[in-house]
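Budget justification aside, the reviewers requested a transparent look at the raw inputs and outputs of the sequence design task funded under Objective 1. We therefore reproduce one unedited record. The lines immediately below are the structure tokens for a 213-residue chain.
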């Protein structure tokens, strides 16, 4: 029996590949690991069966026999450690790849998510325009720092790794904002990542859920 990934039955991103199960789909395709998908509605996610997998009622979750994991970063890192392909074999390079996973999730993603949630929840409020200036400054600070580190390199630390997979996934959340377009090196970086055949297969699989939903 194949492992099971839970995902949205109706993707809130309308098929743009931004839901967090996409990160897991992508690493599975990079690693060539077969899996099944269980699609959940928002109501399903709050039922006891799913809360037993994730107490916060979110997706994705990953179930492989008796092992159940939640949080996309934890799932991706687990899979990367279990199967060769996206973690370097050199111990130092391996730790740097893991470091970039945490940098993507803990340093780069928070201001991006805060900005997107402000648009969803606060854009009708009188203070939104002024608040957006501050939010954009925080995002640009991180992008400037990341762009400076990347320089002319193709990837964050020599070869493509799970760190790049997670970082590119995070940066894609800025796709509709126009902010990423100000950083040509990061635009090219995301393009390289998303042109990988594994990403294209994962994106097609997630898009099919939206199209069939």
């Amino acid at each position: 029996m194949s492992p099971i990934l839970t995902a949205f039955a109706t993707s809130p991103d309308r098929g743009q590949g931004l839901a967090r199960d996409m990160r897991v789909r992508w690493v599975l395709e990079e690693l060539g690991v077969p899996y099944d998908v269980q699609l959940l509605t928002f109501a399903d996610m709050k039922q006891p069966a799913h809360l037993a997998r994730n107490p916060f009622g979110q997706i994705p979750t990953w179930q492989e026999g008796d092992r159940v994991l939640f949080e996309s970063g934890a799932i991706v890192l687990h899979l990367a450690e279990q199967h060769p392909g996206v973690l370097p074999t050199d111990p130092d390079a391996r730790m740097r790849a893991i470091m970039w996973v945490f940098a993507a999730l803990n340093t780069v993603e928070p201001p991006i998510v805060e900005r997107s949630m402000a648009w969803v929840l606060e854009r009708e409020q009188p203070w939104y325009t002024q608040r957006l200036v501050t939010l954009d400054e925080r995002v640009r600070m991180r992008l400037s720092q990341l762009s400076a580190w990347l320089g002319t390199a193709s990837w964050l630390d020599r070869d493509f790794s799970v760190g790049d997979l997670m970082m590119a996934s995070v940066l894609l959340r800025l796709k509709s904002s126009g902010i990423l377009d100000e950083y040509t090196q990061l635009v090219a970086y995301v393009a390289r990542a998303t042109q990988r055949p594994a990403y294209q297969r994962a994106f097609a699989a997630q898009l099919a859920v939206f199209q069939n939903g």
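The mean pLDDT is 93. The helical segments are 21-31, 48-51, 72-82, 91-122, 128-150, 162-171, 184-194, 197-212. Computational costs for records of this kind are itemized in the attached budget.
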